[in-house]
Amino acid sequence: MMLEDLLEQYPKTALLKDGRAVILRPLQPTDERAFHQFFCEIPETERLLFKHRVTDPEVIRDWCQNVNYHRILPLLALDETRILADASLHQSLGGWKRHIGRISVVVHPAARGLGLAKTMVRELIEVAQNIGLEHLEAEFMGEQLAARHVFGKLGFTELLVLKDYVKDMQAIPHDYVLMGRRLITDEEFAAAN
Length: 193
Ligand SMILES: CC(C)(COP(=O)(O)OP(=O)(O)OC[C@H]1O[C@@H](n2cnc3c(N)ncnc32)[C@H](O)[C@@H]1OP(=O)(O)O)[C@@H](O)C(=O)NCCC(=O)NCCS
What we know:
By secondary structure, this protein is an alpha+beta fold. It has a single domain, classed as Aminopeptidase. It contains 7 helices and 8 strands. Strand 4 and strand 5 form a beta hairpin. Helix 2 (32-40) crosses helix 4. The structure holds coenzyme A (COA). Coenzyme A (COA) binds next to strand 5, helix 5, strand 6 and helix 6.
């Protein structure tokens, strides 16, 4: 299925465990200010472990002004006033990893424990499945236990752990954890049904 066709399902509503409704839709260039605000409200202890310096307005501007959903599909969850979560599906668009997607997720502290990370990652797993990807990966620093737990619940297993392999924003080394799961292909689905 074409990504463009799949994106036509958005915006759509998802329900949190407390009954609140949130809107799910891809990031748009006009989200720049709210997206920067979202990352500024993530605790610094967690941000130190992120791959990118997300409090730098230039980083966020680049992400918002150069959206290419084929390369990176950032899916947002929003309530009436703010962004509550961001989950992204990254693709290589060629090369030996062209059949492998990578997913990451961040949920605002005020919206945690309500099933939002699970909902969003599930949503992107479905997108990945429908556009024909065969594997998904997710990368972590060893300390990101909550996130590793969420992905574990969604069928991801640890593929490898490299001791003190990556460095945080303060150049402190941490274990690198690669998790992954296989996606069933259309042919396998057809054979099983
Ligand atoms: C990890 C994170 C995304 C979880 O978001 P969330 O919306 O609170 O997670 P959910 O409510 O969907 O929880 C999913 C499952 O994980 C469990 N879980 C969530 N946080 C947990 C924690 N801190 N410790 C243990 N389990 C946890 C939940 O109990 C739930 O399990 P269940 O299905 O058995 O009920 C969020 O804490 C976060 O944004 N952390 C910082 C960002 C980060 O580290 N991202 C990793 C890069 S990919």
